[in-house]
Amino acid sequence: MYPLLLKQLWHTPLANAPEQEIVYRDYLRLSYRQVYARIQQFGAALAADNILQGDVIAVMDHDSHRYLECYFAIPMYGAILMTMNTRLTPTQIAYTLNHSGASVLLLHVDFVPIIEGIRAELSGIHKIILMMDEAVVLPATVHVDGEYETWLADQSSNFDFEDFDENTRATTFYTTGTTGVPKGVYFTHRQLVLHTLAAGMALAAPAVHQRFHADDVYMPLTPMFHVHAWGIPYIATLLGVKQVYPGRYVPEMLLKLIREERVTCSHCVPTLLKMVLTAAQASATDLRGWKVVVGGSALPQALARQALEMGVDCFSGYGLSETAPILTLAQMSGNCSSAEDTVTEESLTVLCSAGRAIPLVDLQIVDDAMQPLAHDGQSSGEVVARAPWLTQGYHDNPEASAALWRGDYLHTQDIGVIDSDGYLRITDRMKDVIKIAGEWVSSLEVENALVSVAGVKEVAVIGTPDKRWGERPLALLVVDTALFSESVAQDYVRLCAARGLISKHALLTQFKRIDFIAKTSVGKIDKKALRAEHVKHNSETN
Fold first, then answer.
1. Catalytic residue flag (residue 512)
2. Which of 69, 166, 322, 445 is catalytic?
3. Terminal CA-CA length for the chain
4. Which of 370, 361, 365, 338 is nearest to 419 (CA)?
5. Do residues 34 and 243 make contact, with C-beta atoms less than 8 angstroms apart?
6. For 260-308, how does the pLDDT look when each residue is reduced to its tens digit (9 = 90+)?
7. Active-site residue 230, yes or no?
8. 441 pairs with which residues across the strands?
9. Cα–Cα distance between 289 and 311 in angstroms, integer?
10. pLDDT tier at 532 (50, 70, 90 boundaries)?
11. CATH number for the 6-351 domain, one of 2.60.120.10, 3.40.50.12780, 2.40.50.140, 1.10.10.920?
12. Cβ(474)–Cβ(493) under 8 Å?
């Protein structure tokens, strides 16, 4: 029997591209052969420390070659990789480390102050290995059990990773949901290999645009702690492509790496794409030839248009922490193209949709009784899915696990429609839709309209209580005061409503300028925080 284990992803690159580069910032270059030797040293180090199969090893690092080594070495050994979200609060970090049962922590020096602040609360961590780029002298009060490079260097590079059950748990991490404590999501080797094969096939399928192939140069712009960086480092490794890891996300360094390493493929959330585009315009950096999968939240058409006009081949992807994560990709069908051709409304609609299901995904929209709805582009319901790599539940949380899989489909809690060509369009989160006079109004559609208004830098739309209408939209706007006009924004909403692009009830939208829009730890708009801050005050005026 040939088990589906993550170690099998290394056979092809080691045979076909052993000298291909893996680059860390402007600091280090390694070949695939050298990285795999380091992974073998990693396995030997775990054995020397008497780590057992099933032990949980947590990692707190920036996006680096070290993190890529952790992606493989820890699960290949039979232990469980926990990717620690470094943007959580110290209390949440302590909770997730304890709840996961982590016993070893690989810790970048930048995060030492956080761990020192909660050290007394960590019940299971008995070993800390320090990660750093250059020698750092820590205060005498800080105790660690070793340094990563020394820890590896002391070991042999001939460690043999044994076969075991492909259903062995490989990774775990914690969702950053807007309600309750974080929930632990977990995946097996089999699930991650199948996700790698299906998502890799989908990304490589198009003839020209919106594709990832063996001649690309890959650089993630989604934190590696977040859903395996969308699983794409596993795909990149299987393909044997050049990989570039940027460390902390600093615009100047990102642009330098894109330019000097000739990066051609990345993935990120809309806010980060906007940051890179702005920095590129300011420095006159040519981004033509760069492909970007955008996810985490809806890709606004105005941002997509800006990227496409700068020669960036951008398109949406959709998934959840619970889905490993890719479920759909917004690739153009037929001979349609984007980045090198005139940007049309039709192409923007497709590229900014959630896209079509990748291989092996059964994607449906259902009503409250779990009955499938027509794929006619109009019938709206909850998006549910089945695929062989979706998480089977939440760690030590049977009630939430049962709710997640009600009716034998994974419930996304997103509302959407699917058209006759199979393209999914997310209209809102179930908890974010706005109910006005009995009609559901999509906050995402109103946001997508307003972001096109001159002077609008960012926008988030939430519902606020209203005595007459039940609710009405409140548009929270970060604007350039020299360019923005509220009357122009109101006129544009009227125009969109008249054209049927948004609900006529969007005409009730109120506007409020704010300094910044709250985000979650992975860059999504945090509407729970926005409602907590703005809804009570605003409702008092109604």
1. no
2. 322
3. 68
4. 365
5. no
6. 999 999 999 998 999 999 999 999 999 999 999 999 888 999 899 999 9
7. no
8. 434
9. 7
10. confident
11. 3.40.50.12780
12. no
Catalytic (active site) residue 175: yes
- Whether 435 sits among the annotated catalytic residues: the reply is yes
- Report the Cα 315 to chain-centroid distance in Å: 14
The model's pLDDT over 202-254, given as tens digits with 9 standing for 90+, comes to 999 999 899 999 999 999 999 999 999 999 999 999 999 999 999 999 999 99
Rg, the chain, Cα only? 23
- Is residue 93 a contact partner of residue 173, using CB atoms and an 8 Å limit? no
Please give the Cα distance from 427 to 444 (Å, whole number): 6
Contact call for residues 360 and 340 (beta carbons, < 8 A):
no
How far is Cα 513 from Cα 538, in angstroms, rounded to an integer? 12
Give me the residue label for tokens 């990789």.
81
Q: Judge whether 96 and 85 are in contact, CB under 8 Å.
A: yes
**Alpha-carbon span 30 to 470, nearest angstrom:** 60
Catalytic residue among 83, 172, 175, 237: 175
pTM of this structure: 0.86
Every domain range in the chain assigned CATH 3.30.300.30: 434-539
- Determine the Cα–Cα distance for residues 65 and 287; give it in Å rounded to an integer: 24
Range list for CATH 3.40.50.12780 in the chain = 6-351
The DSSP code for 355 is B
Candidate list 440, 457, 486, 533, residue with the active-site label: 440
> Per DSSP, what are the bridge partners of residue 411?
384
Q: At what angle do helices 270-283 and 301-309 cross, to 10 degrees?
A: 40
CATH number for the region 434-539 comes to 3.30.300.30
Tokens of 68: 């890529």
Q: Which residues contact 367 (CB under 8 A, 6 or more apart)?
A: 373, 381
Return the SS3 of 49: coil
112-48-97-404 Cα dihedral, nearest 10 degrees = 140
Catalytic residue among 127, 435, 457, 528: 435
- pLDDT tens digit sequence for 378-430: 999 999 999 999 999 999 999 999 999 999 999 999 999 999 999 999 988 88
Secondary structure of residue 102 in the 3-state scheme: strand
Residues 6+ apart with CB under 8 A from 81: 57, 59, 70, 71, 74, 75, 170, 171, 172
